[in-house]
Specification:
alpha+beta; eight-stranded antiparallel beta barrel; single chain
Length: 164
């Protein structure tokens, strides 16, 4: 299993150019932007964005589905608590849904901020999760982890793009 997760954002032809360079780069679109990510042991293929050290992994990302993304500004202790809270209850990750595919929690390499990705293969399950108490619980954990920081946690939902 790769040990790093690299993430960047983009739009338009930039997304296609990046994806054409490496077929392992995944892309998901939503709200007028695309999230591009790749799991790797090597150097990030992106000139911008962040590289994260994977802390927790479960399942494998598939080619299709919905992706939930959280960016959590947190210090080391509150970040560790966030990871523990989320991973100790698979229900809050949506792991009880039939189309749950994967989860990744990672810490940025040059800091303590965290990122959480959860994928569902079925749009219906993703919609139910988006409106669930479990997703709101993750939001609450993220708020608690980042409460001492000016930027609040960010949660976005994306739809995975088909491979080129």
């Amino acid at each position: 299993m790769p040990s790093k997760l690299s993430i960047t954002f983009g739009s338009g032809s930039f997304v296609d150019q990046i994806r054409a360079r490496d077929p392992h780069i995944r892309a998901a679109s939503g709200s007028g932007e695309a999230l591009l990510f790749i799991e790797t042991d090597g150097k990030s293929p992106f000139q911008s964005g962040n590289t994260y050290t994977l802390l927790e992994t479960r399942g494998n990302f598939q080619e299709q589905g919905s992706l939930f993304y959280w960016s959590v500004p947190a210090d080391r202790n509150s970040g560790d608590l966030f990871v523990h809270q989320v991973m100790s209850n698979p229900k809050v990750l949506g792991a009880e849904y039939d189309s749950f595919q994967a989860v990744r929690i990672a810490r940025v390499e040059r800091g303590d901020d965290l990122v959480l990705l959860i994928q569902f293969g079925n749009e219906g399950d993703a919609t139910r999760y988006a409106k669930s108490v479990e997703r709101l619980t993750v939001d609450q954990y993220a708020e608690e982890a980042g409460k001492s920081f000016a930027p609040s946690p960010v949660m976005k939902r994306y739809q995975l793009l088909q491979p080129l």
